[in-house]
Amino acid sequence: MDKLKIANKTFESRLLIGTGKFSSNQTMARAVEVSGTQIVTVALRRVDIANENDDMLAAIDRKKYLLLTNTSGARDAEEAVRLARLSRAATGIEWLKLEVTPDPYYLLPDPAETLKAAEILVKEGFVVLPYINADPVLAKRLEDVGTATVMPLASPIGSNQGIQTRASLEIIIEQSAVPVVVDAGLGLPSHAADAIEMGADAVLVNTAIATAKDPVKMAQAFKLAVEAAELAKDAQPREKIKAASASSPLTGFLRD
Amino acid sequence: MAFLLINGEKKQFDALPENIAELLKHLDIDAATVVAELDGQIVQRQDFAKTKLIDNQKIELLRFVGGG
Hints:
The complex is a heterodimer of chains A (256) and B (68).
Chain A lengths: L3 E3 L2 E3 L3 E4 L6 H11 L3 E8 L19 E5 L6 H15 L3 E4 L12 H13 L3 E6 L3 H10 L5 E2 L13 H10 L5 E3 L5 H10 L3 E4 L1 H4 L4 H21 L21
Parallel strand pairs in A: 3-4, 3-10, 4-5, 5-6, 6-7, 7-8, 9-10
Antiparallel strand pairs in A: 1-2
Chain B lengths: L1 E5 L2 E5 L6 H8 L7 E4 L2 E3 L13 E10 L2
Parallel strand pairs in B: 1-5
Antiparallel strand pairs in B: 1-2, 3-4, 3-5
């Protein structure tokens, strides 16, 4: 496969890593390193002024990893735009994972507010990577307003259910002119490999790694799975057929 | 007596910190890790010491945390 290219940047790895839910910044940093990723997502939250807060950014080497702030917590376009501007003011980085999730139970992204925010942010010069439901029409609309990728979900965030949106993902992958990053719900390395084998350009994984008993080992497993799937794509598998096709020769047997 | 609304909570001061840098010092928060919004306007970090505070202002202090 050619290298992953998003906006004007090229990446060696097709695995993006989320930094939430790790038991410590040390474990997170180690998992990120072992995963081989070059893009890590972070969130912005209010400082807890009553308690001491760790500076998690100190654990991320920003020369090695592109920091992709998400707009998690935003319930509408206005809040997402506000978080995006704050992130840019803090880091000088224009890359942004746009997510607008008004429903706290399934955390499904709001398509109308996401499109509205994307339009504003693209105009303000942001490189927008929108998290969306696996909706091919929305994916096209976002591409039309100038987002750098589309990031359809495999299943609800953090659910580890794997690819439950296959038919729609296939259409998005077929039609998209921008990279497709399958985000959310990938629970096992095989799910990530599946997404890449389907033709996704990249995957974003957080919960499956962060909440494994051994997150560092799981990060390595995801790295290997994504690389295996890339190799398999390059090897160009033959298509499925209905009937058997013998692997051993059927001629020259001990029979008249 | 003066007040600031910090991250949605009303905080009372005998004497208001003069600027955002002073406020962060008062709260024991490392300015290098914080993003600030004063009455809805983003304040760049290099302007923390220049940005004066007045009674009853709304200030949001944010920082980066792990996220997916």
